[in-house]
Amino acid sequence: METPREQLTAIRPGLIGLHKTLVDSERVTYERVHGRVPSAGEFLQLVIHDSWFVWLRPISELIVRIDELLAAEADPTTGDAAAVADEARELLIPEEGGPGFATHYHEALQRDPAVVLAHAEATRVLTAPPR
Predict the structure, then answer these.
(1) How far is CA 28 from CA 1, 18, 76, in A?
(2) Distance set, CA 123 to CA 13, 74, 129 (Å)
(3) pTM of the predicted model as reported, rounded to 2 decimal places
(4) Among 11, 51, 84, 95, which residue is least crowded by beta carbons within 10 Å?
(5) How many C-beta atoms surround the C-beta of residue 76 within 10 A?
(6) Digit-coded pLDDT (tens) for 95-124
(7) DSSP designation for 130
(8) Nearest 10 degrees: CA dihedral of 45, 47, 53, 54?
(9) Which residues have CB under 8 Å from 118's CB, separation 6+?
């Protein structure tokens, strides 16, 4: 049976990969509307501050929470790992016309095959039976 630390460590890479893929996909869409963003630094500022990217915050915050649990002096509890896994499973349910993240996520899945692959990888760990 995996420890809570191992569970969180297993969930993290899929979420990070999905987050990166979503950011990359959203950049393409943003640049189609607003023109090319000239530098990585300017793009990072857009991701952090522009309302176009605000929908990505729930997945960013979930990754930060995992990092905080893994960095804490005390080991994460079974409840911590279960709560994170439940939140991730719930977050990664795309919904046409749903609330904020769910709708944007649905749209990203519809327009970009890379998002579909990243979604599959992230959810694979979340739906795997406990070891």
Answers:
(1) 41, 16, 37
(2) 11, 27, 12
(3) 0.92
(4) 51
(5) 21
(6) 998 778 999 999 999 999 999 999 999 999
(7) P
(8) -80
(9) 14, 17, 18, 20, 21, 22
